[in-house]
Amino acid sequence: MRLDQRCIVDMIKPQSKVLDIGCGDGSLIDYLCRHHHCDARGIELDMSYVTKTVAKGLPVIQGNADFDLQHYPTNGFDYVVLSRTLQAVNHPKEVLQQMLRIGRHAIISFPNFGHWTLRLQLLLKGRMPMTTVWGKYWYETPNIHPCTMTDFVHLCEVEGHRIERWMAIDEQGERAPWRRYVKLANFFGEQALFLLTR
Q1: Residue span of the signal peptide, if any (predicted)?
Q2: What pLDDT, in 10s, does the model give residues 122-164?
């Protein structure tokens, strides 16, 4: 599993009911079912991933986060996860609202566009930056709404979503040491991870 997924596992209580939106290859669902004894299922836009995960015996359906979450029942899950997908949806604000309607908790991870290396690349090269997290050219990436940690915190404040926990991490497995100051973590964290409640 990716680092952000391992951190997500630590936020989920065993035997919980979990929906993973944009579940990709299903590795998070598989781990939660096998090791956390969760009732975990997924929704994925890419049909090739859906086919592979279903072939592994995982409960995944094809769907679009922008349109299909409205069909899920209110309070149907303990946790709703959106890992490295927020920046790729058309309507991030509405997706977050649906996540917190469907589940008691929402866990969101995304590449932090406020990281210092991205700022520096933009300043010095004048081009859209690339890192291990942002590993594609701007014209190849599915990302349509890149944001920073500070942007996300502002959205949560405006929408009234309560941030229960947050962290900034990098690809090497280190957590950014600025756990009390989002603005510093925004500068030094490659990825952001948030646990929200209503």
Answers
A1: none
A2: 888 887 777 766 677 777 777 778 899 999 999 999 999 999 9
Report the 10 Å Cβ neighbour count for 76: 13
Per-residue pLDDT tens for 9-61? 999 999 999 999 999 999 999 999 999 999 999 999 999 999 999 999 999 99
CA 52, 104, 145, 194 dihedral sign is negative
d(CA 107, CA 87): 14
Q: Are 175 and 169 in contact (CB under 8 A)?
A: yes
CATH superfamily entry for domain 3-113+146-197: Vaccinia Virus protein VP39 (3.40.50.150)
pLDDT above 60 (res 176) = no
Which sequence spans correspond to the domains of the chain?
3-113+146-197
DSSP 135: -
What global pTM score does this model have? 0.89
Q: At what angle do helices 149-159 and 92-102 cross, to 10 degrees?
A: 60
The 3-class secondary structure across 65-76, one letter per residue, is: HHHHHHHCCCCC
